[in-house]
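Lecture notes, part 5. Sequence design as translation. It can be helpful to think of inverse folding as translation between two languages: the language of shapes and the language of residues. The source text, in structure tokens, appears below.
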């Protein structure tokens, strides 16, 4: 995220998605590589990873027996997929984990002769499972005759604000970029002096906007971390790097009748090849060790390693709600009056998090540096 911010690019990613696919890879590893996976994923065993992944998959999936929108709740979908070269059978233990825990049905494909067709197949699968939002997860030429196994997942979320913004009040306002320039951007607001969940902390303000939950027991919210300084995003990112728990801790927020309340509309996708970042963070052995021996039943399994990790995410925030990102809404009310009425005007680069409150799971994290980019 820091690299993207330094370039002035918007960014969005799903920690949930990355965690689950790496946990699946860890289940197929052994020895020092497995230890490194467990350390990186902050877990004690493959069994613990599988239990966590099963819980994450359940939280991010439709509730069984419910209708499509569960009387006003969010639309959710999370699926895993696996594509295996037809020359190599999966080990029965890994296949059992794949099917039972990760709900993925492995597909036999021909990487030797039809690698590019598999790229198209995986991309079509990702596009279908994300309702057309994630296109071309795998770049052209990313698979070849040496590919043995592809593991992937797709996460989709669409929710409506519990209290929608009034489109007639949306107006163009200045948004201040990190380079000192300004751009005119559509900003959303609600009626003046309507209570919002707000807090002010060391170096930043925090706003929480919930989404409709209907009869769904899951509660989604979107958090906006707004630096106090117009050029304070990089400092805020550094603060979070030193203390990652800042993003997921339970903040004491209160209903505040904000004097000025403006949030920009935005819509963008971001993609990155994550292996280099993971190596920098200490996850090196899976990319070179040959200790992924618990996946494939073959005399050549010692030569198996992770070559690349691709991740792509999409988000849209508008007056109705958000698509492909989790957020929740609570009806606002005024609990107290203050002599000095604060404001929340997101007119400069900020971070956001989309979180399921009941389980404390972050579905998406991102940064908006220019709401017009990729619009």
């Amino acid at each position: 995220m820091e690299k993207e911010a330094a370039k002035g690019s918007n960014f969005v990613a799903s920690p949930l998605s990355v965690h689950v696919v790496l946990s699946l890879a860890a289940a197929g590893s052994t020895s020092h590589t497995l230890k490194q996976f467990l350390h990186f994923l902050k877990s004690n065993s493959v069994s613990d990873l599988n239990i966590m992944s099963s819980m994450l998959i359940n939280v991010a999936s439709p509730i069984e027996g419910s209708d499509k929108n569960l009387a006003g709740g969010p639309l959710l979908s999370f699926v895993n997929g696996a594509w295996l070269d037809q020359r190599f059978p999966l080990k029965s233990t890994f296949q059992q984990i794949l099917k039972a825990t990760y709900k993925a049905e492995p597909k036999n494909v021909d990487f030797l002769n039809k690698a590019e067709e598999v790229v198209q197949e995986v991309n079509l699968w990702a596009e279908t499972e994300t309702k057309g939002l994630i296109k071309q997860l795998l770049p052209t030429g990313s698979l070849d005759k040496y590919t043995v196994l592809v593991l992937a997942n797709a996460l989709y979320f669409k929710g409506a604000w519990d209290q929608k913004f009034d489109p007639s009040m949306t107006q163009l306002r200045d948004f201040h970029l990190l380079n000192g320039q300004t751009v005119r951007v559509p900003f959303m607001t609600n009626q003046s002096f309507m209570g919002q969940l707000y807090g002010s902390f060391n170096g930043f303000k925090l706003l929480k906007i919930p989404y409709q939950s209907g009869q769904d027991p899951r509660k989604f919210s979107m958090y906006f971390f707004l630096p106090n300084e117009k050029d304070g995003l990089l400092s805020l990112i550094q603060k979070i790097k030193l203390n990652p728990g800042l993003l997921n801790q339970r903040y004491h927020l209160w209903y505040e009748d904000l004097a000025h309340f403006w949030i920009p509309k935005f819509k963008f996708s971001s993609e990155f090849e994550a292996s280099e970042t993971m190596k920098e963070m200490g996850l090196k052995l899976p990319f070179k060790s040959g200790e992924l021996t618990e996946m494939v039943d073959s005399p050549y399994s010692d030569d198996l390693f992770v070559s690349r990790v691709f991740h792509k995410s999409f988000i849209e925030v508008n007056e109705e709600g958000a698509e492909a990102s989790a957020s929740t809404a609570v009806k606002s009310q005024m609990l107290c009056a203050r002599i000095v009425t604060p404001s929340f005007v997101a007119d400069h680069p900020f971070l956001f998090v989309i979180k399921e409150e009941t389980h404390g799971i972050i579905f998406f994290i991102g940064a908006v540096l220019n709401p017009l980019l990729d619009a």
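The translated text above is only one of many valid answers, since several sequences can fold into similar shapes. The chain has two domains: 13-158+268-314, 160-266+318-368.
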